[in-house]
Amino acid sequence: MEQILNLRGVSIFQRENLILSEVNLTINKGDFVYLIGKTGSGKSSFMKTLYGDLPLTNGEGSIVDFNLKTLKEKEIPFLRRKLGIVFQDFQLLQDRTVADNLLFVLKATGWKDKEKMQAKIDEVLDKVDMKTKNFKFPYQLSGGEQQRIAIARALLNDPELILADEPTGNLDPQTSIEVMQVLQEINKNGRTILMATHDYALLLKYPSKTLKCDEGKVFEVVQKNA
Q1: What Rg, from alpha-carbon coordinates, does the chain have?
Q2: In whole angstroms, what is the distance from residue 154 CA to residue 134 CA?
Q3: For range 132-155, the mean pLDDT
Q4: Quick one: pLDDT at residue 180?
Q5: What does the alpha-carbon distance between residue 68 and residue 61 come to, in Å, rounded to a whole number?
Q6: What is d(CA 52, CA 48) in angstroms, rounded to the nearest whole number?
Q7: pLDDT in tens, 65-121
Q8: What is the mean pLDDT of residues 14-37?
Q9: Beta-carbon neighbour count of residue 130 at 10 Å?
């Protein structure tokens, strides 16, 4: 199995505060993994460490072939290109259309060829069923549609791992299921996904490997078959 993420004896700090300790885990290519835990249990700090927002000082960690321990500031943009990051609050640019939001990311990550950029935008919007909305502005879309665009944006650079931080956190139950179906479909096509969530209904509906943050630890939860 190809390892996408491997952490050994990792401690995660937010400034001086120890948030999580003795984290050992492996995520393999093609996995769909949930990260659950109460607010304040360390899910966000854990995610931030994975995409280079918080430094890894204790333990050993590798993610999509980057060593988190020796990660340099200038390598962070390259790490993030191999990761697709989806946030709870979408983080779309409100003053430009859907297509221009995606174009902005492509230009920022070094794409030059106009035709290739257009083809890529069409391809990712197609994957999330939003091709007909490319001329709209984010405020003209529902929350679920905005999250689909955010997922499309995360797919632009063919990431090896998608980190979704509470992607359904601001959505109603029906819309959450629709967004979840999009993520499931992407996972079926071979993408690895780590999704932080507190929506237990989704875990029951779409059971998968589950990690839990609790009392400063991260451990795998064995789901009982109902």
Answers
A1: 17
A2: 16
A3: 94
A4: 94
A5: 5
A6: 6
A7: 999 999 999 999 889 889 999 988 878 999 999 999 999 999 988 899 999 999 999
A8: 93
A9: 20
Domain ranges of the chain: 31-48+71-210+217-221
Return the structure tokens found at 153: 């944006």
| 3-14 vs 58-63, strand pairing mode | antiparallel
- Separation CA 126–CA 121 (nearest Å): 8
Does domain 31-48+71-210+217-221 fall into CATH 3.30.1380.10? no
Distance CA 12, CA 17 (A): 9
Q: What is the DSSP string of 96-138?
A: S-HHHHHHHHHHHTT---HHHHHHHHHHHHHHTT-GGGTTS-G
Residues near 115 by beta carbon (within 8 Å), at least 6 away in sequence: none
CA distance 9 to 148: 35
Find the range with the poorest average confidence among 153-162, 191-200, 215-224.
215-224
pLDDT surpassing 50 at residue 226: no
CA–CA separation, 23 vs 8, rounded Å?
6
Three state DSSP letters for 45-90? HHHHHHCCCCCCCEEEEEECCEECCCCCHHHHHHHHHCEEEECCCC
Both structure tokens of 136: 């709209």
The arithmetic mean of pLDDT across residues 187-210, rounded, is 92
Angle between helices 143-155 and 98-108 (to 10 degrees): 30
